[in-house]
Amino acid sequence: MTAFATAAALSVPISLCRSSKLNCKKGVRGGFRVFAVLGEEGGLLDKKSTWGPLFDVEDPRSKMPQFKGKFLDAYQALEVARYDIQYCDWRARQDLLTIMILHEKVVEVLNPLARDYKSIGTMKKELAELQDELSQAHRQVHISEARVSTALDKLAYMEELVNDRLFQDRNPAESDQPSPSPSTSTQSTDTVKNKSPRKNLKVSGPVQPYHPHLKNFWYPVAFSTDLKDGTMIPIDCFEEPWVLFRGMDGKPGCVRNTCAHRACPLDLGSVNEGRVRCPYHGWEYSTDGKCEKMPSTRLLNVKIKSLPCFEQEGMILVWPGSDPPAATLPSLQPPPGFQVHAEIVMELPVEHGLLLDNLLDLAHAPFTHTSTFAKGWSVPSLVKFLTPASGLQGYWDPYPIDMEFRPPCMVLSTIGISKPGKLEGQSTRECATHLHQLHVCLPSSRHKTRLLYRMSLDFAPVLKHVPFMHYLWRHFAEQVLNEDLRLVLGQQERMINGANVWNWPVSYDKLGVRYRLWRDAVEKGEKQLPFEKST
Question: Which of residues 330 and 110 earns the better pLDDT score?
Fold first, then answer.
């Protein structure tokens, strides 16, 4: 679909927005009466001074781009939509001010002192006139409410158009539908919605083998604290078995979890002097995969596959791809001022992309997490994820939560929180205390994910020293995850049977959509990946 719109579909209703420069002393008839009232020197201007910051907003119509009757590209159309929202905000303020001023007039008419110089008949007449004006003002408020609803619908439609354009740019071969003609583009938004072909992401059918290009990244696989000297951690990564252990120098290594001799799993054995020992015949392998000991036979030149392995910021990372490892590793440290309180590892029976889709979506919280962190949350009338045009991070509105997808499989979020289960403020900067989360979704296999979860706080450091607190954090994390897991498992079942789990993305799905477009570009081998800065 071509991402364009007409000014007729998005422009503000100018015919309904004219102001009247009338004298408020003679009563006001028709149009909007606020300008005359506010313009009267010595009138009600002083009385509304305390409301000044709320109502001293410039009329945006004078700055609105003049696109009426023209075809617009996506950016121009979004600019018009932005001014549309600004106008609705300004109009709502003026409607409210009108009602407040009229109520003040009613109070003045009913003032007992007024009876000294006004007859009952005069007061009744003035009250009747004010009642008519109040009735008209309230009708105008209802009109403004309808305009706001329409403007939000238009904005949502524009976001759909932009998403459609993104889908079209990513999948040009599938864009076989003709663009709308000028005659059809001037129809109502609802008509265009019904008749325009809608592009969507295609995530359907059995999970396919992972593309080799997706392996050419550094993947966190374990927390440093879990890999002690003389111990091993068996993991699966891209459907291959590996085992982690530390060499004699204390540095971590990662080798294939299969002995070269008789294919015995090495993690069933032990670590001896910085080498992993097979429990079957005692063959021992160093961190680079070389067999350095073969009891009861002559030492042969045998080596098993190993992966580049590095330790940074309390995490162990491996490079499973065939390309040379990148020189820069992703930083996963919590922001300054935070202390790590919990590090938890779970094995989950879902494909890692579906789990990332879930973690990158917060709009589901008041419906899904009603027994844990979102208990008591109200359902907002509109949920938005605000992000730069080129980026994989942003913040949620109306929730004080910042979120980022960090390639290839990490989600970082910072939550402004006042006490458990409660949110405060409209942004994280307005909140006094915060919780920072890191989720790493390692693709173990096509139907299994190794989840690494790290939780950090910038308050209550004493909790780190409370006995058994780690078990409490794990219990809470499992509760939250189980609320999601039953839904994601259901999605996975439907997806395998042919349903498209991204059939109808909407505006608050923006970050999940960008992750899917990024992943598609990686699998296609594109040199410049979307939503990343050019190098």
Answer: 330
Among the listed residues 290, 259, 264, 286, the one whose alpha carbon sits nearest the alpha carbon of residue 273: 286
d(CA 229, CA 327): 27
Distance CA 285, CA 248 (A): 12
Max mean pLDDT range (89-103, 128-142, 176-190, 512-526): 512-526
Q: What is the largest CA-CA distance in the chain?
A: 121
3-state secondary structure 186-224: CCCHHHHHHHCCCCCCCCCCCCCCCCHHHHCCCEEEEEH
Cα–Cα distance, 261 to 294 (Å, whole number):
10
Q: Which amino acid is at 339?
A: Q
User: Where would I find the H helices in 275-424?
Assistant: 352-359, 365-368
Q: What is the mean pLDDT of residues 179-196?
A: 40
Q: How does DSSP assign 246-274, residue by residue?
A: E-TTS-EEEEESS-TTT---GGGSEEETT
Residue 325 DSSP code: P
Distance CA 291, CA 284 (A): 6
Confidence (pTM):
0.67
pLDDT at residue 44 in the model? 41
Structure tokens at 175: 């864009």
pLDDT, average across residues 497-514: 92
Residues in CB range of 346: below 8 A, 6 or more apart:
450, 451, 453, 477, 478, 481
Provide the token pair at 445.
């296999």
Neighbours of 163 (CB within 10 A): 24
The residue with greater pLDDT, 421 or 174, is 421
Distance CA 291, CA 270 (A): 15
DSSP string, 159-195: HHHHHHHHHHHH-GGG--SPPPPHHHHTS-HHHHHHH
Beta bridge partners of 405: 411
**Which residue type does 178 have?**
P
Residue 311 three-state SS: strand
pLDDT at 490: 96
Closest CA to 185 of 175, 199, 195: 195
For every residue of 37-67, DSSP letters joined together read HHHSTTTTTTTTGGGHHHH----GGGGS---
| Orientation angle between helical segments 352-359 and 510-523, nearest 10 degrees | 150
How would you list the strands of the sheet with 284-285, edge to edge? 270-272, 275-277, 284-285, 291-293
Please determine, for residue 9, whether its predicted confidence score (pLDDT) is greater than 50.
no
**Section 125-150 average pLDDT:** 78
Distance between CA 431 and CA 426 in Å, rounded? 8
Greater confidence (39 vs 308) lies with: 308
Question: Does 486 or 398 have the greater pLDDT score?
Answer: 486
Identify the CA nearest to 520 among candidates 177, 197, 174.
174
Across the chain, mean pLDDT equals 79
3-state SS class at 484: helix
Q: What is the Rg, in whole angstroms, of the alpha carbon atoms belonging to the chain?
A: 31
Q: How many CA atoms lie within 13 A of 235 on its CB side?
A: 32
Query: 42: alpha, beta or left, given left = phi > 0 and alpha = psi -120 to 50?
Result: left
The amino acid occupying position 394 is G
